[in-house]
Amino acid sequence: MSRLTGPTVRLATGSATLARRLGTRLTTWVARGRRHDLTSWRAALGCWLRLALLAFGLYMLWRVVRAVPALLWLLSSAWTAAAWRAGHPAEEPTDAPADAPTEAPPAIDREAVRTLLLTLMGDGSGVHLRTVLAHLQQHPPTAAQTAGWTVPDLRARLVALEVPVDRSVKVGRVPTWGVRRRDLEAPSPVTAQESSTEASTAA
Question: Which of 13, 124, 179, 194 is the most buried (most CB within 10 A)?
């Protein structure tokens, strides 16, 4: 194994980590531009504006680098230094006692999730999961808990809570993964089974 293998792997890992973090932050920043009080294409105007600002910023950076090529060395050095720090392997704790209690993650209340979904729907008939995810990533305390989540991650957690999701929910004439009001207001299978059991017992 060459002496350069370790530093090379560290730089590659750090670069991938930086790119992933940057992509997540930019995606979240663009998603924050969506207006939840509007519908159709007007709701996404803020997102398109932020995308245009990003494109303009990249274009201006390209123009500056073309005008001052030496600046590319400075940018490359800054990226390399940041990648080197990000690629540092995490240290595993060795002195922690074997029977140390671990803090359990906070339990997710289905009723709280249902209330949030209905709030985001407003007067509409449904809400897209990407809208729900953007809301969770913008507001504490869920912002820290959902950092790095994707729509499939959110969908899997909703399914685990028996929240009905569908891939053809239309909001603003755009069909995609979301939750419908009529499905959310319907009793869950567990509740329906308990109600039928109580009714048969009473009979």
Answer: 179
